[in-house]
Amino acid sequence: PPLSTSGKQSIPLDVTITEASFRAVAYLLRYDTEKLIEETNALKQKEQPCLEPMRKHYGATLTNRRPLIRQLAAQTFAPLIRKLKTEAARKRHLRRVLRALDASASENPSPA
């Protein structure tokens, strides 16, 4: 495998295991989304459902350097965002995600 910019070898990716892992997370999110939103809502003491505590967990996968991981992450977490009840909540959350992704890309530019 080619050396990365840090001088370390990249870890080989087992696509089968990676896809199965994302499918498992997608399954959990599909059937437990209401509970997650209620818990985060209770933590924040807000009236609107909120996914902010979840963003830090899936943000790392959305900014992964491997395209397959980014694609699987987007497919996994899109239904979670769709379950937000109002259009305003979805837009607010997606704006925050895009700002975080932009900041992350600015801090860690990919080698050309």
Description:
By secondary structure, the protein is mainly α. It contains 4 helices and no strands. It has helices at residues 15-44, 52-62, 67-82, 87-107. Helix 1 (15-44) runs parallel beside helix 3 (67-82). The chain is flat. The two termini are 18 Å apart.
Question: How would you summarize this macromolecular structure in one to three sentences?
Answer:
With 112 residues, this protein is mainly alpha-helical. It has helices spanning 15-44, 52-62, 67-82, 87-107.
Summary tags:
single chain; 112 residues; mainly alpha; 4 helices; 70% helix
Mind summarizing the main beta sheet? none
Radius of gyration: 16 Å
Assign an overall shape.
Answer: flat
Helix percentage: 55-70%
- Beta strand %: under 5%
First-to-last CA distance: 18 Å
Order of helices and strands: HHHH
Mean pLDDT: 76
Number of strands: 0
Number of helices: 4
SS-derived structural category: mainly alpha
Unreliable segments of 5+ consecutive residues: none
Topology:
Elements: H1 15-44, H2 52-62, H3 67-82, H4 87-107
Helix pairs in contact: 1-3, 2-4
